[in-house]
Automatic annotation (TrEMBL):
Protein name: Pyrroline-5-carboxylate reductase
Classification of source organism: Eukaryota, Fungi, Dikarya, Ascomycota, Pezizomycotina
Transmembrane regions listed in the UniProt entry: none
Enzyme class (EC, first level): oxidoreductase
SUPFAM superfamilies: 6-phosphogluconate dehydrogenase C-terminal domain-like, NAD(P)-binding Rossmann-fold domains
């Protein structure tokens, strides 16, 4: 695989997640160029979306970047033909339709296709490219497929993106390019693909799960006479501080023990969480998200 130093990026499907990734990459590239950092450079970005309203939304959002961005309406083939690296960000149910378009296999040949679709493993993506449901009759695809899962914090440059280890040694360089690209929007971690549905859900879904806990805390703040907006400021800084403590290597259980004084308020709060089954609820929620990802892959 040979990737130009200055390469074109394509994005097929640019909803909330795709837009977050796009914004993060563009902002990261501006910073890289300002600091004159060595390495690959995203030269131009081609985007394909379905509706005219999506085209208008992206043009408004990306107004300052438009010289470097081309937005197509429902022209997936042109997006891929003009790109060296492609992020597939459509709905999982649309993958086979898009990848079986006339000329798509030729357009993707020897390129990197990064799938951020829940439940779709690299094998099923390769098979969808190879040919209209009859992969056994076709030679091995030369498309370098990489599976990745970022989260919504990509738009703030604070995502964790998990990337599946390659099944083929020929795809190793594609994984490195993928990690370089998603390091623009946070951090990356490589994991075995057999664990991807669960850990992809851990990376992609738990931010939304945490918001439920945050809302509960804010409801009690309001019930206690404190403004929701002010309570959110306290919680936000608390979470930032907790993240730094965890990043420094502190174990969650050790942190709980540190702040749980005998007879104090923290231990009473923790006991109530245990009585309400919050720990098992979070474990079950992650399990359910991972299982749903597997179900999407079987459809």
């Amino acid at each position: 695989m040979s990737l130009p130093q200055r390469f074109n990026l394509g994005i097929v499907g640019c909803g909330q997640m795709g837009t977050s990734i796009l914004s993060g990459i563009l902002n990261g590239e501006v910073k890289r160029q300002r600091e004159d950092q060595p390495g690959w450079t995203v030269n131009h970005i081609f985007i394909s979306v379905q509706s005219a309203s999506s085209v208008d939304r992206l043009r408004n959002l990306l107004s300052q970047h438009l010289p470097r961005v081309t937005i197509y309406q429902s022209d997936n083939l042109a997006t891929i033909q003009n790109s060296h690296v492609v992020i597939l960000g459509c709905k999982p149910a649309q993958m086979h339709t898009i990848l079986s378009e006339t000329g798509m296999q030729e357009a993707l040949e020897s390129k990197i296709l990064i799938s951020i679709l829940a439940g779709m493993d690299t094998k099923s993506t390769q098979e969808a490219i190879i040919a209209n449901g009859h992969p056994a009759e076709q030679p091995e695809s030369q498309v370098h497929v990489v599976r990745a899962m970022p989260n919504i914090a990509a738009r703030e440059g604070a995502s964790i993106t998990v990337v599946a280890s390659p099944a083929r040694e020929s795809d190793r360089d594609a994984v490195q390019v993928t990690r370089w690209l998603f390091n623009h929007v946070g951090k990356t971690q490589e994991i075995p693909e057999c664990q991807f549905d669960l850990i992809g859900s851990l990376a992609g879904c738990t931010s939304a799960m945490f918001t439920v806990a945050i809302d509960g805390l804010l409801d009690q703040c309001v019930a206690g006479g404190f403004k929701r907006s002010e309570g959110l400021q306290v919680i936000t800084q608390t979470l930032l501080g907790l993240a730094k403590l965890l990043e420094a290597g502190n174990h969650p259980a050790a942190l709980r023990e540190e702040v749980s004084s005998p007879g104090g308020s923290t231990i009473q709060g923790l006991l109530e969480l245990e009585r309400q089954g919050v720990r098992s609820a979070f474990a079950s929620a992650l399990g359910a998200a991972g299982e749903r990802a597997r179900e999407l892959g079987r459809k």
